[in-house]
Amino acid sequence: MASSLSEIDVKILNALQEDSRLTVQELADRVALSASSCWRRLRSLEETGVIRRYTALVDPKAAAVGECVFAHVTLERHSAETAAIFIEAVRKRAEVLECYAVSGDADYLLRVAVGEIADYNRFLEEFVFHLPFQVRIRSNFALKEIKYETALPLRATTR
């Protein structure tokens, strides 16, 4: 079940999505709370899992991993065991930034970050082609990034 978010929680989360390096005092000033009250709310958001972690956003091109590939993966055999093996294997691959079970023609959608096309080919050879079952994979290379956001569009869910 989703957590309830108050208006002040949303203000805190929006401020942190913009700049996660804010001190508690800076955050409190932005959302018009005392530092101790802000700290308590922040702690609650962390403990309830609303805030998963804090991180830095790295520019892929500057870090030489600027190629983005969307891989549509279809498992040839559908079973709980096959799915579990695939999911466990995907979680171990650093190149796979996101993996979703999806509806439609494919079973999974992966967002894969690599330095160049040859690195994606190596990913296929070392990972996909070594799975203990057959998969179909359809790859789409991103030509240009139009929009990339990490901030969720939050709204209060309680009054």
TrEMBL record:
Keywords: DNA-binding, Transcription, Transcription regulation. One of its GO terms (molecular function) is sequence-specific DNA binding. CDD domains: HTH_ARSR. GO terms for cellular component: cytosol. SUPFAM superfamilies: Dimeric alpha+beta barrel, Winged helix' DNA-binding domain. SMART domains: HTH_ASNC. GO terms for biological process: regulation of DNA-templated transcription; response to amino acid. Pfam families: AsnC_trans_reg (PF01037), HTH_24 (PF13412). InterPro entries: ArsR-like_HTH (IPR011991), AsnC-type_HTH_dom (IPR000485), Dimeric_a/b-barrel (IPR011008), Tscrpt_reg_AsnC-like (IPR019888), Tscrpt_reg_AsnC/Lrp_C (IPR019887), Tscrpt_reg_HTH_AsnC-type_CS (IPR019885), WH-like_DNA-bd_sf (IPR036388), WH_DNA-bd_sf (IPR036390). It comes from the Bacteria. This is Lrp/AsnC family transcriptional regulator. It comes from Azospirillum griseum.
